Amino acid sequence: MSIRLYDSMAREKRAFEPQDPNRVTMYVCGPTVYNRAHIGNFRPVIVFDTLFRLLRSAYGDDAVIYARNFTDIDDKIITASQETGESIEAITKKYAEIYSEDAAAVNALQPTIMPWATDHVGDMLSLIENLERKGYAYATDAGVFFNVPQMDEYGRLSKRNLDDNQAGARVDVDLGKRDAADFALWKFAKPDEPEDAIWDSKWGRGRPGWHIECSAMIAKHLGKTIDIHGGGVDLQFPHHENEIAQSECAHGQTMANFWMHNGFLDMGGEKMSKSLGNVVLLNDLLGDWDGEVIRFAMLSGHYRAPLDWTTDLLEQAKTTLSRIYGAMRRVWEVEGGEATDRGVLDALSDDLNTPIALAELSRLAGEANGAADRKDEAAMAEARANLLAAGALLGLLTKTPAEWEQGGDSDEKARIDALVAARVQARADKNWAEADRLRDELAAEGIEIMDSADGATWRRV
Ligand code: AMP
Ligand code: ZN
Fold this sequence. Notes:
Layout: E1 4-7, E2 12-15, E3 24-28, H1 42-59, E4 64-68, H2 75-84, H3 88-105, H4 121-133, E5 137-139, E6 143-146, H5 162-166, E7 183-188, E8 206-208, H6 210-221, E9 226-232, H7 236-251, E10 256-262, E11 265-267, E12 270-271, H8 282-288, H9 291-299, E13 307-308, H10 311-331, H11 343-349, H12 354-374, H13 377-394, H14 401-405, H15 410-428, H16 432-444, E14 447-452, E15 455-460
Parallel strand pairs: 3-4, 3-9, 9-10, 11-13
Antiparallel strand pairs: 1-2, 5-6, 6-7, 7-8, 11-12, 14-15
The structure holds adenosine monophosphate (AMP) and zinc ion.
């Protein structure tokens, strides 16, 4: 089955055909790095990582070039720097590192390229000059702006026309804009701004607007037309619309052949967002839940639909994943099988239908249990291979069953390890009463000890 993806521009599912199957290009707008990201910010990370995995399986690991930027210059970053006294670089490097660690904890592969906006200011300035030369950009006392009415097709992605945009808006007199819809390509530095937020340009000292960052980094690293451009649905307007305006007016060709947008992660019936205050940080969740449980919960809804984030969702994800790992344990020792099942692959190939893909993963677990019940070694080996291959596509089942069973948070694991070690010592001391007491204490928590010649291991039962 070929891959079909919903294209927000065409508003329909279309067969995905890359321009060059040896160089499939995908760009996803990355984070502005000045604080810890909430779990809603990781929805695009997990969704587009799953797409990355699917594309790699179809075209080859080295044939897919996935770029996700770091926005390391922005009003909010400047404010954070002024408030804390830390340099912009110190702030952005710190939060980018935390973001990358969090992404790795939910099994997101590293994108092929992670460009930093501030490394590309020269490329942005060239792009702005190009737009000015072609009559799309003009300078005011506040900066350089893109003149939206110059572009006939503005609003194609979000299906807004200029009149909608302007309804209720007034031309910002202070900025000297010609039209209310015009947006900043370059913002002149204000008197109190830190030096590390200022670059020279032929128009005056300042810094780039947000939208031009993506346009410049995409053209530089991926090309003038890319295969897939992704991000959260809130980026469709104005961010992606403005990226399209800049890139297409400068280059005279389509910016992206597919536009993909994930729906919101909600909490308490509203979009999770910092401004509403209904946020949960991934970093905090990782203290209580395995990264795979969080990923499973995220993938349990279709990416385009809103998903309500609840403890119940996480509990269910954990229960199902435990059942799947339990099945995997029963076939774990029988290696050498070949993965032949296409259930998960086909579900993902249909516009990343992860709810069905997860149901298919459970079906494979059922097959593993059936094969183990029948003691059918060939079927057990095949079930094991199918589970691992399907898991690799979804970014799940990356642990051994033993690792999963011992999982939970590391403090908890350390506590149990200490009790097991104490029991080994009690036995070495021939203190049988203490050894039995410790065994019973652990059994009461559902932990079984398996003694062996060189010590003891344990698992949850
Ligand atoms: P931001 O740092 O706000 O630009 O967001 C980074 C990415 O997370 C963007 O792709 C947003 O669309 C996405 N995002 C932010 N909040 C949510 C949410 N509640 N649900 C899903 N995606 C979100
Ligand atoms: Zn962008």
